[in-house]
Description:
By secondary structure, chain A is an alpha/beta fold. Chain A is built from ten helices and ten strands.
Amino acid sequence: MIEVRKLVKRFGAKPVLRGLDFTVEEGEFVALVGPNGAGKTTFLRVLSSLARPSLGKVSIAGFQLPSQAAEVRRSLGVVSHLPLLYGDLTAEENLRFYGKMYSVPELRDRIEQVLELVGLSARRSDLVRTFSRGMQQRLAIGRAVLHDPVVLLFDEPYTGLDQEACDMLDKVLREVAGRGRTVVMTSHDLGRVQDLASRFDVLAGGVIAASTTPSGLGSQNLLDFYRQALAPGVGRLI
Amino acid sequence: MKPQSPTLKILTILSSLLFLAALAMVFLYAPLEETMNYVQKVFYFHIATAWVGMLGFMAAAVAGVVYLVRHDRKWDLLEMAAIEISLVFFLITIILGSIWARPVWNTWWTWDPRLTTAAIVELVYLACLLLRQGIDDPERRARFSAVYTLVGSLSVPIAFLSIRLFRTIHPVVIGTNTASNLGAFNMTPPMLATMFFCLFTFSVVFATLLWHRVRLEQLNVAIEERQMEIL
Amino acid sequence: MKKSLTVPAAAALEKQKQPSRVAGFLKAILAVVWKDLAAELRSRELLSAMLVFALLVILIFNFALELDLPTRRSVTSGVLWVTFAFAGTLGLNRSMAIEKDRGCLDGLLLAPVDRSAIYFGKAISNLVFMLIVEAIVLPAYSLLYNTNLINPGLIGVTILGSIGYVAVGTLLASMAVQTRTRDIMLPILLFPVAIPVLLASVKASEGFLQGLAGAEIMPWVNLLIVYDVIFIAVAFMTFDSVVEE
């Protein structure tokens, strides 16, 4: 579903991603973990066609980036740590706007379904400005799945959420991912990620430094695995 | 470090020699103008620096467009170098013009199309340099400054035309013999020769400075890259 | 199935695609405009800020210039356009900052539409905001200074001038909000390149207010049209490079 070969992204002379290889099969839920500044956000921005790769090949759902960016965007749903919503519009109006931008057919029914999915049907006519952080994040997920994308990208979706909101978000994430969608998510919250994902990739030094699956972990904790993966680089990180 | 190319060394020496020759021509060869006397000597360098300013302005616009098409950083370096040089030379033009205008027009400054346009160009350049300063990512900095230079290079000629719709008192020295504009004068062949020699000299100076500035910036980029390797 | 398509059928399919792309483009523009207007209708923060600011500028001019009858005749169009320009930058900056603050610009860029559709959408809503402010300032000025500014020529010039100002302003505002110094950057970028449009607007407005002959006003009006066309085209071509990373 996602194919990345020898991806390099530089900001000026500073390389953030250094020849990264990354493959995701259809239906996989991949969690990207890594220290701050490892390039997780940059990587997701490249995948979501918001940033141009400096070198290397990226293909998503069979389309190349950046040459077929419009097709790629159609098959992507993106949630970042910012809500990407308009505070002065209601939940429904936000969805209607994005629905028009994506030319979603039978928009009215689709909005109904999505609001139901993220549990905001009752608050549909309230301004997003009045929503709590957790509700905004749920609506953001609703916005991302509105056009029924095959690939979902989540960038730190838990940032700034309290325990309860995180649990709610978990539920929505499971629901969304359970429909055979391919998901790539970055997060610092290793505990949560461990329950959700079907694969864990550690991004460090601009490449995928290690990768494992829940069965590969065995009795090991994801945190231990993460520490091990970063061990050679620890000196540099401190 | 890459050493200076021999061509650049020769060019640097050539520009210095030409510059001395131009000075000598202005003060020793060109005849004294009857009514304006020594003040008129300013004219040769005034024209020449304005010419360099124009060259820089056009070079920056072209480099910007090429950058937007090719996304190759060297065009961004060229654009910035052209802008900086053009900024300085237009400033010199304005100062020299003021020195000339004070005794001839009896004022340091008038809102004549050419003066005003020169001032606008300076403001566009300053805005562009401020814009560059406000962006950390070199790639974005290059794109934004190329777009802004393009907008500026289209707007400035329109500004010139629109200001020209007002009446002008700036003398049109070349191509007119009617001394209706205050400060206009007939150029004798030695004067013409001096003027063209100055234009040529300053074009060479422009090329030399541009080359040096681009090279300096390339070295800066190289230093940045080395730092990244060490880190 | 695909192979069985005959050449004319394929051509017909291609033809069908063509208008749908244009329709999608227009639909996206409309969606952005609708979104901006709906949000503004609810909060009114942008319009009210622009309006209050515009009236304050006029008030300050009143003290600074002693707007008595003879002065007024010569400076009215200048005062108006300075006011419009200042209020305009305020609105342009805010309208783009809204997009940037909550990551909405990324949201727009993620949509599978041509980026220039986003530019045109934003430019049209900015133009609407500016025209609304002008539609209130003109009668207010007429009332306060007992001069009639409601004149078809002047209104035409106001629209033409605003189009040019907003066309460049929207492009530069989308650059300005992406810089570190975004709050101060827009006027510094915009004013030097907006000089032709402001000058021509002032001159054409003055011509209409003083009832000059058409032949004296037309060069300025033509200049405005040329400026509008050139800068809409430039923005259309370069907006991609302003938003893409």
